[in-house]
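Morning!

This is the sequence you dropped in the shared folder:
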Amino acid sequence: MKSSLLKRGLKYVLSHPTHYACYFGFGVAYVFAGVYFRKSKYEYIRMGFAGSVAQIATEFFFHPLDVVNTKVKAEIVRKVDALQMSRRIFSKEGLFGFTHGLSVTYYSSLLGGLIYFSTYKFFKKLLKQENSEDNANINNFFAYLLSSCIGELFFMVIYYPFDLVRTRMQTRTELHAYNGIIDGFRQIVKSKKKVGYWRIHKLYDGATPSFVLNISNQCLIFSITESLRDYVMLKNNIQKVKDLNFYQYHSCSLISGAIAGAITNILEVITINKQVQGKHFNFKNFIKEHGFYSLRAGIFARMMINSLHTITLFTVADGIANFYGVEL
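The structure's back. Tokens below.
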């Protein structure tokens, strides 16, 4: 089986040399930039590079689950659960079926992570009341909330076009048979009506629900996690996040991920269907047709993914941040 996977993977790489040359070149350039800025006097830049590593590590690790989750929500009319969808993907395409859109995740995670974490760190340091007697007060909660909202807004402007292509690649519809990120962008923006006319705005098809989804989810995750950490640290007279024990550290991320996942699940259902159906999607008809099921489709899978995603993201981000001599 391993031999078969290696042969298939090698064949795919050799058939798309330009794509993989770009991946390699981009990765090497990013590594050199990360090493160069490790000694930067600006904490938010160092946190940006640490966060981008955490972002790509987390997204890569959970990508197979994301493929399953996306396809479940895209085929809501069939009411297929995550386990059934996993079996179907594996039976049809094997392990490679769980990697659709992974190349898009590579670029979007590194660029998006750099933008989000550097912005979040900058505004958090600017807004948080470090000298407050009660570090878990409501003012700091809103500092986390506002910092994450601003960071996620900048993040989504860059990230969304990548996410649009990835979602369509994961659902694998005939209409959206993209060969990669460049081909996806080209097919989306090029108009069939006029030669040489490019519709850049088409890269943001379905952007409204996606922006609301991601900003809401990220704001909830970061503000709840950081506030819970503040509460636990204050209660136990702990000064640094790294001094929290295993249970204290991870329970904060687990709780925030589950809460955010449950609250934003309906937004994810709408976002995925809007991205897949494009102009044919109508919110009123969608709710009328699917009713209550649309509110809970894949909710437990999302809560699980969101919780594990949050735990992994904060664990890796804090770990890499230590290497860069900075704290989130």
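Headline: Residues 168 and 276 are 6 Å apart (CA to CA).

More detail when I'm at my desk.
O.
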